[in-house]
Design brief:
Blueprint lengths: L1 H62 L6 H15 L3 H16 L8 H21 L4 E2 L2 E2 L2 H36 L3 H33 L2 H5 L5 H9 L1 H8 L1 H50 L10 H7 L1
Antiparallel strand pairs: 1-2
Helix pairs in contact: 1-2, 1-3, 2-5, 3-4, 4-5, 9-10
């Protein structure tokens, strides 16, 4: 029993020790991983700054302006142009790509494949520039620099210009795939999708600006009807005419109703006038009748004749 207990305790101790050692190893790996990520980000920032200096030096050399990057920057640009010509801008683009890859942890500076891919892409790019711009000269140097001149002249002597174009384009595409580790077809699709989004965004912005301009000048149409107070009163007086013009059927029906009401009023007036005349004639006849009766009552009585004989006898 005691032996079994001891073995169980020993197993528990060993398992706990293994767990603690694993936790320590994981902590160390996490700390080393964070340190390596920080180092990559630092080197990416440094590489991006160096690319900006080289690009500014090339630009100051082409514009003959030392105020962009100073005399030292212009000297750096001259050295870069002497080697690669206008392909020096390809070197600047490659440095930017590597810097972004380091900061996003997608570029391993210890991988020779990446460096070789960017170098070959720059080389084939200088050959293409030498073929495209044969008459371009800056400080007596062609567009492809010394590298493009030597490699381009060698390929032209072997494959002529069309063959040199084919070799240079194919070599540049393969070198970019080797450097970026991304599919060119997928990259083209992504670029086309991005271009569609940019075009849609620009279209929406232009449409919004156009609607804003239309709304900005819309007040001129309204102000024509409200210039002065007199015009407001005239518009108020002539509102019925406008409504009649816009709704002729309603106007005609209202006119018919008004005419019918007027005829009815005239008929009522004529009836009232006729009834008044009849009443006046009746009153006149009544007054004449009453006057005739009064005259009949006021007539003087007739004299009764008295016999003369009777008067004598009586006397």
């Amino acid at each position: 029993m005691k032996g079994s207990m001891n073995t169980a305790m020993a197993r528990k101790k060993t398992s706990s020790q293994k767990r603690s050692s694993k936790a320590k190893i994981s902590k160390k790996s996490a700390s080393t991983g964070s340190i390596s990520h920080l180092k990559l980000e630092i080197w990416g920032i440094i590489l991006m700054g160096f690319a900006i200096l080289l690009g500014g030096g090339l630009l100051s050399l082409q514009l003959h302006n030392e105020n962009i990057m100073g005399p030292f920057g212009q000297l750096m640009g001259l050295a870069l142009y002497l080697i690669f010509g206008l392909g020096g801008y390809l070197v600047v683009a490659a440095l930017f790509s590597m810097a972004l890859g380091m900061m996003t942890h997608r570029f391993d500076p210890r991988s020779i494949r990446h460096w070789l891919g960017y170098l070959l892409a720059t080389l084939f790019g200088t050959i293409i520039l030498y073929l495209l711009l044969p008459s371009y000269r800056l400080e007596g140097i062609s567009a492809g620099g010394r590298t493009g001149e030597l490699a381009g002249s060698l390929l032209v002597s072997l494959f002529s210009k069309p063959g040199t174009y084919v070799i240079s384009i194919v070599g540049m595409l393969v070198s970019l795939i080797l450097a970026t580790q991304e599919s060119m077809i997928q990259g083209t699709r992504n670029m086309l999708a991005w271009m569609r989004e940019v075009i849609a965004f620009v279209w929406n912005v232009l449409a919004a600006i156009g609607n804003w301009l239309i709304g900005l000048f819309a007040w001129e149409e309204i102000s024509e009807h409200y210039d002065t107070g007199d015009e407001d009163s005239d518009d108020a007086d002539g509102g019925n005419h406008d409504s009649d013009a816009t709704a002729p059927e309603e106007g005609l029906s209202s006119e018919k109703q008004n005419s019918a009401s007027k005829h009815a009023e005239v008929n009522d007036d004529t009836e009232s006038v006729s009834t008044g005349e009849e009443s006046t004639t009746k009153k006149q006849t009544d007054t004449e009748a009453s006057s005739d009766t009064a005259d009949s009552h006021t007539e003087t009585p007739k004299a009764v004749p008295v016999p003369i004989g009777d008067d004598t006898t009586s006397s």
